[in-house]
Each structure stands twice: as C-alpha cells, then as structure tokens.
Amino acid sequence: MSTIRVLGGTGFLGSRIVTALGRLPGARVESASRHGAVRVDVTRKETFAALDDSDLVIDVSDATRTPPDELIGHCLERGITVVETTSDSRCVERLHQRFRSANKGALVLGGGIFTGVSNLLARRAAEDVGRAERVRVAISSSPFSGAGAGTIELMIEAMRTATITFQRGKRAESERMLPGPAVDFGAATRPTLVAPFAEAYMLHESTGADTVDVLFSPRPAMLVPSFRWMPSWVGRTSVGRALLRGYFTVLRRWLLSGVASGVELYARAEGAGAVRERRVFAPDGMMAAAWAVAAMAERVLEKRPNDGACFIDDLCELDATIARANALAGHESLRTVDTPAR
Fold first, then answer.
1. Are 224 and 156 part of one and the same domain?
2. Which residues of the chain are under the pLDDT cut of 70?
3. Does residue 338 lie within any of the structural domains?
4. Dist CA 51 CA 264 (whole Å)
5. What distance in Å separates the CA atoms of residue 296 and residue 320, rounded to the nearest whole number?
6. Distance between the two ends of the chain, CA-based, in angstroms?
7. What is the CA radius of gyration of the chain?
8. Predicted pLDDT of residue 232
9. CATH code for position 32
10. 116/288 Cα distance (integer angstroms)
11. 233: domain range?
C-alpha cells in the first residue's frame, strides 16, 4: 500500500484531490495541513517530519504566498517523491533550477489541469510534428468562478509578474500582459492575452522548441481588458494587492458565482513543415484537475522517478492520463478533440 499525503488537502482544490485519490486501489490518502489529520505547516520546518513515511506528497498549498522550497527539499532528502501543482511561473522555474540535480527523491512539476493537462496536450502536439520549432498553448477559463482563494492569488501574481516567452531560442520578458491573437477553442473563438504562466518555461525545457508562448482567455470576455490595462505596480504593493484581492473576491463570490467553471485548452505545434492542433475540454475545471492529479499520481507511483526535478509530461502521456482520469471519475471529466494534421 502506498501512502499519499496531500499538502493543503483541506482547501478548495485539495479536498477534491483527496476525494479523487481515494479511488486509487492500494492507496492510503491523508490530508496534511495546519489543522488536518497530519499536521504540517509549510512555514515551520519542525512540522515537516510528519511527512517522512510518505511515498508521495502532493503539494496543493498556496505556493504563491508560501513558497514550498524548504518542505520539498526536506522530502527529497528522504527519498520522497513530490508532485507540485502550482501554476506560479516564478515558483516553477525556481524549483526546477534548484532541484533538477537532486540525487534523492524526485520533484514532478505540473500536476493539475493547467499546469498539467495543458503540458501533456502541448507535448503530444509537439511529438506529432517530430521536432517542434514552435509551441503555443492557450487556456480559457473563468478564473473567479468555481475556484478557490488560491486562484485569486495566482491572478494577482500574474498581474505583477513579467510575462515570459521564448522567441527563436531567446528568452523574452514583458512587464505587462500583451494582447494575443484570437484562438478557436472549438466551442468559440475568444480573445487572448500573452500570459505569465509556467508552461512557457516548462515546454521550452521539455520539448526543446525554440519559440513557446502561453495565451490566456479569461471568461467572461470583459475580463480581458481588465487584465490588460491593470497597472502592474498595483500588484507590487501591499495596499494594491489587498485592493485586488477584494475586487477579485467580489467577482468570485457574487458577480461570477453562477458562471460555469469549464476549462478549454488548445495547443498548436509547428515543425518540419507540419502543423498540429489539439484541444481538450473540461466541463468542471476543478474536478477535472482533481481526477487528472489522481491519474498522474498513480503513474508517478508506478514509474518511481528518483532523479531530481522533472515535468509531468516527462512521465505521463495525454491520452492515457485522460482515459484514467475519466475512469476514476466514472464519467467524461475531460474530452479531447483532434484536428487533422496539416
């Protein structure tokens, strides 16, 4: 029997992941938090020992406000595998650089739907064209409906973080979100922004593509100009962050409380004269993320990586992950739509 502990397992997404993991055969699943059955506080090293007999730790805590670096280091030193679910771009890059050469345990970056399924989708499109020269990922969701408080922190961080892309092998940064092209997600064509999400760095590393960008289409569309024109300095002060937190909380709890939390993912890869587009739909983004994490966790336990930091698309494959997630859910939580190769 494998022991899986979910750090932040009492939260909005974490509790759903605990439920999904509970359907894995031969797994003992426990929630780890400051007030959970297993008492762990990311800010207090003396509590980390409660994880020492874990086979797998899944971090769903708010990595934006409470960096998990020390806790992950503690786990890796003891040969424990950690799956990190954050989409915070700076956190993901920092963790990859810090632990990529670790000689004990393993850190798997990209558990979830984005990052996560988005990486698997783009990796599959890149493999379809052989040597991908350009990879584009687009994400459409309603970030303030059907989500928890951690999503708010991620959006605030996105407003104050430099947007990273890779253009012809060179890293490019922009202080604010720039307008992106309209993207056909299948259900609709939507406006986008070039977003500071972690997939840009991750896919540049894992696919070797020279050009990588990530687009975000928040729903409803009225949010696009809000993200575009909000001054980045607002998120860099405590007062500004408090105002944004209040504004987004109003959106999440009242104005957008009835908006569906569906997620639409699009990936496009170009290389060797070929183009490949792929799409994934999830009617309930948060529950789809939970089922996907459970499927990914099962695969990680099977492969038992022990070579420092890697990305989820180094271990998992798109179709198998979606098939297993849907089997665990007992319904179609995620659906792929293929586009003929060109």
1. yes
2. 144-152, 158-160, 230-236, 251-260, 338-342
3. no
4. 35
5. 10
6. 46
7. 19
8. 63
9. 3.40.50.720
10. 11
11. 127-285
- This prediction's pTM: 0.91
Phi/psi at 121 (5° precision): -65, -45
Whether 140 and 275 map to the same domain: the answer is yes
Domain count, the chain: 2
Dist. CA 215–CA 160, nearest whole Å: 16
Name beta bridge partners: 113: 116
Tell me the C-alpha distance between 139 and 118, whole Å.
Answer: 8
Q: Is residue 341 part of a domain?
A: no
Vertex 158: Cα angle to 207 and 91 (nearest 5): 55
Cα–Cα dist 161/280, whole Å: 27
- Cα four-point dihedral sign 52, 13, 224, 311: positive
Structure confidence at residue 66 (pLDDT): 92
Give the pair of three-digit tokens for residue 137: 């990922």
Query: Chain-centre distance of CA 165, in angstroms?
Result: 17
Which residues, 6 or more positions from 334, have their beta carbon under 8 angstroms from its beta carbon?
Answer: 117, 280, 281, 282, 288, 291, 292, 322, 325, 326
Q: Residue type at 229? A: W
- Spatial contact of 21 and 294, defined as CB atoms under 8 Å apart: yes
Residue 125's identity, in one-letter code, is A
Identify the burial level of 103 via C-beta atoms within 10 angstroms of its C-beta, where 0-12 means exposed, 13-18 middle and 19 or more buried.
Answer: exposed
Length of the chain: 342
Give the H or E element holding residue 215: strand 211-218
List the one residue out of 152, 61, 157, 161 whose CA is nearest residue 111.
Answer: 61
Q: How far apart are CA 271 and CA 33, in angstroms?
A: 45
CA distance 88 to 15: 20
- CB 165, CB 209: distance < 8 Å: no
CA distance linking residue 46 with residue 253, whole number of Å: 36
DSSP one-letter string for 156-191: HHHHHSPEEEEETTEEEEESSPEEEEEEE-SS-EEE
* HSE of 62, CA atoms in CB hemisphere, 13 A: 18
Say if residue 222 is in the same domain as residue 162: yes
What's residue 150's pLDDT? 65
